């Protein structure tokens, strides 16, 4: 009779505890937390057990803890510990490994130098945000002034007079005209303001009937493009003298 060979069963699962003391990075380089991590782990029955289950469990817990602390300042010890313990406080099977971290608990502390560095970092960040806000405000004011100057140079002159009346002299208007021409060269929409000024200069020498004819021509163009409200507004610029008013073109 042939005898059956006995096959060995799966190895008996092991279990153990975590007990770690080490630094954990913070968002401030050179100013880490001090991390104390405790916990428990166990093996999941498997035909091929892990050679170092304690190291695998410790690595899993440390990676989670360090990833959380690296996003916070040393002043956030309570918040960081709460986040770590929220994740590690429940049983977790390690991916692709026959090991389970049953629980883990973290305690974090920070030294005085790290706390002082946190205050300096927060002060610097606040000052940077204030500078950026001021720069944005000044840029917005510059854009508004450019838009005003391109659309109505006389309004820009009035603003200039109100803001700095001592700076107004006989050279103010030539300087304003030079600034207007310079802006028109760089602003994509500036050519339309420049065209309006050119037409204004051209029309100054025309008789009233020719001015009305020019206005009517612009109104007809607006009508052709479906801008009837604009056309009506243009026609309202014509002379109010009936003898000088030109009949609307078809």
CATH superfamily of the largest domain: Band 7 domain
Low-confidence stretches: 242-250
The radius of gyration is 39 Å
**Count of alpha/pi helices:** 8
CATH domain fold name of the largest domain? Tetrahydropterin Synthase, Chain A
- SSE string, helix = H, strand = E? EEHHEEHHHHHH
User: Strand content of the residues, in percent?
Assistant: 5-15%
CATH architecture of the largest domain: 2-Layer Sandwich
Shape: elongated
Model description:
With 250 residues, the chain is of the alpha+beta class. It has three domains: 96 residues, Band 7 domain (Tetrahydropterin Synthase, Chain A, 2-Layer Sandwich); 68 residues, no CATH class; 45 residues. It has eight helices and four strands. A four-stranded antiparallel β-sheet has the order 1-2-4-3. Helix 1 crosses helix 2 and helix 7 packs antiparallel against helix 8. The longest helix has 40 residues. The radius of gyration is 39 Å and the shape is elongated. It starts with 14 loop residues before the first strand and ends in a 15-residue tail after the last helix. The C terminus is likely disordered.
In short:
By secondary structure, this protein is an alpha+beta fold.
């Amino acid at each position: 009779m042939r005898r059956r060979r006995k096959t060995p069963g799966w190895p008996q699962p092991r279990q153990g505890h975590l007990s770690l003391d080490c630094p954990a990075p913070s968002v401030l380089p050179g100013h880490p937390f001090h991390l104390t991590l405790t916990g428990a782990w166990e093996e999941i029955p498997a035909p091929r057990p892990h050679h170092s289950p304690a190291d695998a469990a410790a690595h899993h817990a440390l990676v989670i803890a360090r990833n959380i602390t690296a996003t916070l300042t040393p002043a956030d010890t309570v918040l960081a510990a709460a986040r770590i313990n929220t994740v590690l406080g429940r049983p977790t099977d390690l991916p692709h490994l026959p090991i389970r971290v049953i629980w883990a608990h973290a305690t974090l502390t920070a030294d005085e130098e790290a706390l002082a560095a946190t205050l300096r970092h927060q002060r610097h960040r606040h000052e940077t945000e204030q500078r950026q806000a001021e720069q944005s405000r000044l840029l917005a004011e510059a854009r508004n002034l450019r838009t005003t100057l391109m659309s109505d140079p006389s309004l820009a002159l009035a603003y200039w007079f109100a803001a700095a009346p001592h700076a107004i002299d006989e050279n103010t208007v030539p300087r304003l005209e030079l600034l207007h021409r310079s802006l028109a060269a760089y602003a994509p929409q500036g050519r339309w303001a420049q065209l309006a000024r050119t037409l204004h200069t051209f029309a100054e020498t025309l008789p009233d009937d020719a001015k009305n004819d020019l206005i009517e021509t612009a109104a007809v163009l607006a009508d052709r493009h479906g801008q009837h409200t604009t056309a009506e507004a243009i026609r309202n610029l014509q002379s109010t003298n009936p003898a000088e008013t030109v009949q609307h073109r078809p």
